[in-house]
Every structure is written in C-alpha cells, then in structure tokens.
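REQUEST FORM: STRUCTURE PREDICTION
Request ID: SP-0412
Submitted by: Lab K.M.
Chain count: 1
Length (residues): 303
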Amino acid sequence: MPKQVYRINRFDGGLNTYTYKTDLQPNQAPEFTGVNGDKIGELRPAGGFNNTGTYSMTLTYPGYGLYMFDADYRMTGTNSKDSFVVITNGASVDIFSVGASTFYTARISASKAPKAVYTHMDGVLRMGDASFNASNSPQRLSFENDTFFGIYTPSTWYQADQICAAPASGYFASSALPAEPSDVHKVNVSLIESGTGEGWDKVWECAVSFVYDDTGQESLLTKLDGEVSGFAGDSAAYIKTRMKVGATNRWNYRIKKVNVYLRSVGTDDWLFQATIPLNEGAYEWNKPSPPVDAGPKPGKTPA
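STATUS: Completed
RESULT:
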C-alpha cells in the first residue's frame, strides 16, 4: 500500500498547551521539553548545566524572581558583551555573570522581599513587586557612563528608583551669582537684569524640573522659594543657575538635564526658559550655566 511522507521541519511555533492537540499548527507541539526550536528548520538542545559552585539563597516566592538578560557591559564596567542570570535572594537581587562565571551580590536592594517580576529594554533591567508591597517601589539597574558637570564619569551599573522625582528645593533671587545649594538635587536660580528689552516689569517666580534618561522623561516641577521684582520697562534679563556637585553624595545618575521655567505672579502657566545639560559639558556650579542668555531675548516679551 503506498505511503505518503509527512515532513515536519518547522518547530518555531513552540509549546502550545491551550489548543487541542488535533488543532495544533504544524510548527507547534503539545510537549516541548529540553529543546529549542526558535530557528526555522532546526531543533536543538535547550542547553546544559554548568557547575558554578555553591550558592545559598532565600526563596520567598516560588516561581518568581528568576530572569536572564544580555548587555553590552560586564558588571565590572568593562565594555564587553555578557549574559546575566538574575536571582531574587530575599530582599536583594544577585546577578550571575555568565562571561565571568562570577556572582555579584545585592546589585538591587528592596525594603522587603519582593515577588519580583523583571523586564529588560533599552539596556535597562527593571524590577517590580507583584505583591504590591507598599515598602517596595519599582527599581531599575542600568549602566551609566555620562560625564556630570565636566568633572566625574561614573562608568558603573547603577540602581535607582524608577520614579522620576522632582528637584528637592531651591531658591530664586536677582543676585549676580546664585547662592550655593546646601545639597545635591537642589537648584538655585538668579534672574539678572541686563541690556534693553521689554516685558520684564512684573514680579517673577521660578520653577525647575529634572529630565531623566536618554528618553527625556521630565519630572514634575518644583517651585523655588523667593520672587524677583520686575525690572524697568525697557530692561532685558538672563538666567544663571547654581548646583552643588557633591564630592561623595553624588547626583542621581539618571538625571541628564534641568529645565527652568518662569511665570509672573498671579498667572497659571509656566513659561519654559532654558535647559541646563548636566551630561553635555555644563559648567561647574560656580559659573553661569550655558547659555547665559537663555531667558527671553532682548526686545521680546517672555513667551
């Protein structure tokens, strides 16, 4: 009796336990154990085991907290591609470097042991807590190597809160050089009369925000303390900012820019004035931040 050959050469549909077996697509399987079919026309072993030594961990939520991702930098900061295994160990997250065959402990820390769920996108490892513990905020781990204030370059894996916090505080005045803030994450701004123009004969207040990451996420605005009385009707003005670099207490490496806004007292809308780039050669805190004429140009009203 003649026989017909039924050739199966596609396995990329993977495991399908939802559809009834007789209704599966030709490239799907009801059982798929220990093999990898992601390449069309190939069915390969899913991998093996490598004895890396003894590792002790605290498993709080079975079935959660294990993840793997690839990156362009090793945990030591070396510019070399590597694969990492992420392991939730109690309230901390340990990472195993496949390339270096080394465990790096507590690369992410939480207040309470999280029911950890991970994602990795655009070079950033993000961790959320599926138990919604109020003590744990979403965290992220990213490699940061931008230069800050033209002084220091971190070149390190950096844990930070996923929330884009607003500036802590600051002061707004008309002094020629703003006072030095008491700590990092604070911004002091001066509005200085200079040249001829119009539209500055009002009382002004100032707000600042932080711009995070290369994606440009902007925080909420923080209104600075103080007001600047209006200048003469034919005067112009420009802005200076001052920030504390911090020798040991460094800025959040996620913050890339500071935006400055003004509005006249009694109005609602904040008017954008300047962007101060912290990672693109901004001057040190005791010099005018570029550009010094970032305010409304002479001869024009603020807009």
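NOTES: The longest strand covers residues 187-196.
Reviewed by: T.R.
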